[in-house]
UniProtKB/TrEMBL annotation:
GO terms for molecular function: citrate synthase activity. The keyword Protein transport does not apply. It comes from Acidipropionibacterium virtanenii. This is Citrate synthase. The keyword Acyltransferase applies. InterPro entries: Citrate_synth-like_lrg_a-sub, Citrate_synth-like_sm_a-sub, Citrate_synthase, Citrate_synthase_AS, Citrate_synthase_bac-typ, Citrate_synthase_sf, Citrate_synthase_typ-I.
């Protein structure tokens, strides 16, 4: 094995140079292309942030307009792809349906299913434009409702909300606060450097596979509960506390007792040893959104009390465990009307520009296929025995 260095789970291994996202976990700092996440969440739009992350700089007014136009023109999916959704069982989980939809998209445009710069550019537009359409169709399929065509007079976020919650025969009424909260949540999820799904995208891309293959693989990586699924676990934990009638103090005592194997979901992070800056922003929006839905505030109140109880406890202080991005995001999604199995799909829409940016950065800077080594711990050489001579 020579001088191989074993690093399970890549805890201490940097796989690449990257100019996209900066994280300082000790001080709770997150920046896309140098811009603090707080400023982007306050002032930017999802499409502008996508442009920033993919192309490296904020667009001029003209560049933004052209980009938005390019996306607007590509939101429809081929009619035969609509038929594809009918093949999945009613009420299929929307996440595998989304991943399959992304992969199927590559077969509907030979122009973009390659790695030449113009092909990647075309695939970038198509993926950003069609992801909300695929996500909304996956959702409608999962709840057994008719799908809606995109309405390109609407904004990117409005279009997705309408395709998710509208019905073909009824006008859909938007709530500005909900539209903006969803936009902010997507902005906060746009990139987070070498997380599991983004590293998957880079790994697949390193083989020379096209952008659709890499993004579809990233979507599947995101589906795991240790990655995209934690926000669902938070909702289930809060419901459990509510339904059992126990106090947050009692729950925190259970968490501290290691034997119980109960974790405070939505707390702690491999990199942040301080308040996750995304959680601070989401918390404010959760407050506003849940005010619109009296009756849904019980879980928010439990979450806020749970945070207070944990943050004043030595167990959490000593281990530097703070709320992460998932602690409040599920509450907002739930209040918007999304079922828990859609939470990871929303994460995927948010993360898409990050995946694309990393794929393109890799393509532009390295043509080496990723190929980690291993330390072999199996049998030494032994001789083959025919089956009738084996014990
Ligand atoms: N509740 C109670 N104790 C915890 C928690 C928690 N949520 N997180 C960590 N600890 C304890 C852990 O038991 C250990 O204690 P000790 O030193 O006494 O053995 C100590 O804190 C260090 O934890 P660790 O498991 O070594 O930390 P890690 O970096 O391997 O794990 C984590 C990070 C996020 C997997 C973990 O904090 C966790 O399971 N949190 C709950 C699940 C969650 O919210 N996940 C979302 C992550 S953010 C979304 C994303 O990026 O995809």
């Amino acid at each position: 094995t020579g001088n191989l260095f074993l690093d399970p789970a890549f805890v201490n291994t940097a796989s690449c140079d990257s100019r996209i996202t900066y994280i300082d976990g000790d001080n709770g700092v997150l920046r896309y292309r140098g811009y603090p996440i707080e400023q982007l969440a306050t002032h930017s739009t999802y499409l502008e942030t996508a442009y920033l992350v993919i192309y490296g700089d904020l667009p001029s007014a003209a560049e933004l307009k052209t980009f938005e136009e390019r996306i607007r023109r590509s939101t429809l999916i081929d009619e035969r792809m609509r038929d594809l959704f009918r093949c999945f069982p009613r009420r299929s989980h929307p996440m595998p349906v989304l991943a399959a939809g992304v992969m199927a998209l590559s077969t509907f445009s030979e122009k973009s299913a390659g790695i030449e710069p113009d092909q990647v550019e075309n695939a970038t537009d198509r993926l950003i434009a069609k992801m909300p359409t695929l996500a909304a169709f996956s959702y409608k399929n999962s709840v057994g409702q008719p799908t809606l065509y995109p309405d390109n007079s609407l904004s990117y976020i409005e279009n997705f909300i309408r395709m998710s919650f509208g019905f073909p025969t009824e006008a859909y009424e938007f709530n500005d606060e909900i539209t903006r909260a969803l936009e902010v949540l997507l902005i906060l999820h746009v990139d987070h450097e070498q997380n599991c799904s983004t590293s998957t995208v880079r790994m697949v891309g390193s083989s020379g596979a096209n952008l659709y293959s890499a993004v579809s693989a990233g979507t599947n990586a995101l589906s795991g509960p240790k990655h995209g699924g934690a926000n669902q676990a938070v909702i289930e934990m809060l419901q459990g506390i509510r339904d059992s009638g126990m106090s947050t103090r009692e729950f925190v005592s259970q968490v501290k007792d290691h034997k119980s194997n109960v974790k405070l979901m939505g707390f702690g992070h491999r990199i942040y040893k301080n308040y996750d800056p995304r959680a601070a922003i989401i918390k404010e929006h959760a407050d506003n959104i849940l005010k619109l839905h009296s009756g849904r505030q019980d879980l928010l109140e439990i979450a806020q009390e749970l945070e207070e109880t944990a943050m004043s406890d030595d167990y959490f202080r000593e281990r530097k465990l703070y709320p992460n991005v998932d602690f409040y995001s599920g509450l907002i999604y739930e209040a918007m009307g999304f079922p828990v199995n859609m939470f990871t799909v929303l994460f995927a829409i948010g993360r898409l520009p990050g995946w694309i940016a990393h794929y393109r950065e890799q393509l532009a800077t390295s043509n080496k296929i990723w190929r980690p080594r291993q330390i072999y711990t199996g049998e030494q050489e032994r001789a083959y025995r025919p089956v009738d001579l084996r014990p």
